[in-house]
Amino acid sequence: MPAGTTSIHIAVMTDINGDGTTYLDIPSSQTRYAPSPSTTVVDVQAFGSSGAIGGWAGRVETTPAGPEPPTEEPPKREPPTEEPPIEPELPPKQEPATAELPKADMVVGLDSGGWAWNSAVRDFSGAVKYVRSSYKYYNSDSRIGRLANYGVTLMPLFGEGGTLAGYNNPVFINEIVRWFKRYGKGGTYWAGKPVDLGATTCELINEPGNPSFYSDYSNPALYALLTRRVKAAIRANFPLAVRPKLLVSYDGGYGGSEYGRAVFASGAVADAVTVHPYGGKSSRAQSALGGRARVEQAHTETGLPVYV
Predict the structure, then answer these.
(1) How many other CB atoms are found less than 10 A from the CB of residue 289?
(2) Which of 2, 18, 125, 154 has the fewest CB atoms within 10 Å, i.e. is most exposed?
(3) Which helix (DSSP H) or strand (DSSP E) does residue 202 occupy?
(4) Is 267 left (phi over 0), alpha (psi -120 to 50) or beta?
(5) End-to-end alpha-carbon separation of the chain, Å?
(6) Going by DSSP bridges, is the β-strand pair 7-13/22-27 parallel, antiparallel, or unpaired?
(7) Helix H segments across 8-88?
(8) Cα–Cα dist 180/188, whole Å
């Protein structure tokens, strides 16, 4: 188990192709799981206080619990060649080599738009366990529970369209606080549940520099003011252990790094920045490469993690 593991997410299925998949969670203190005869294929993933730690271990066909084995030990069964075993042999214990440890984690997710019904959640949960979507689509116990049933953590977006000035008010900021107190990490919704998949990021305004969305898009000081107000509310209402990270747009979703420089020059605060590095549409090759320079500039100029 990776360091920091607090629970183990388990996927059980009827065959190696993933048919009939269901999910459950066990505490990290439970190091054994006995599969049922109908779901003999098992995969596991470590979860910590902030969500998944790394990826899935890999599907393995197991032998379900049964009668006492014969005295003579049966031949050892090799795992399928296309999947690694659940418990690989551990290397000899040694002092950690700090220089070789990864310096950051990368989380891969999707933007799901308003796809909040059960069949959609089931589909995208087969690809990713993190989804970015407006909080309005997941603003009830039933919908958050739908994500939790498939092991998905929401990366909520607050603010789409209107005016930047319109968001600079206590009603909007209080709505953010209310949502996280219920559905964020450590929120009341997760009390008594086997695993807490509460949100740990707070993305503030979709593409604030886009003239198609905001009539006052050209006033970065309004956005900077909002970031300070939201950050102050987060600090005042959540202890550090469950405090959501504030994600602030650096390229405005439209104007490139010039927008981010103006926003931070106006006093913006953030725990991380977002960038929408579309590659254009003049050619397939250009589009596929994406606007990589935007991501590099955002990180170099702020020193903060970048959410693409």
Answers:
(1) 12
(2) 2
(3) strand 201-204
(4) left
(5) 29
(6) antiparallel
(7) none
(8) 9
Residue 46, number of CB atoms within 10 A of its CB? 20
What's the half-sphere exposure (Cβ side, CA atoms, 13 Å) at 177? 17
- Report which secondary-structure segment, H or E, holds 27: strand 22-27
- Dmax of the chain from CA atoms? 78
Per-residue pLDDT 10s for the chain (308 aa) are 888 898 888 888 888 766 777 778 889 888 888 888 888 888 888 888 767 787 778 888 887 655 544 445 545 555 544 544 444 444 444 444 334 444 557 889 999 988 889 999 999 999 999 999 999 999 999 999 999 999 999 999 999 999 999 999 999 999 999 999 999 999 999 999 999 999 999 999 999 999 999 999 999 999 999 999 999 999 999 999 999 999 999 999 988 899 999 999 999 999 999 999 988 777 887 778 788 889 999 999 999 999 99
Q: Which residues contact 142 (CB under 8 A, 6 or more apart)?
A: none
Backbone angles phi, psi at 240, to 5 degrees: -55, -35
Return d(Cα 122, Cα 90) in angstroms, integer. Answer: 34
| Contact assessment for residue 184 and residue 199, using Cβ atoms and an 8 Å cutoff | yes
Tell me if residue 233 falls in helix, strand or coil: helix
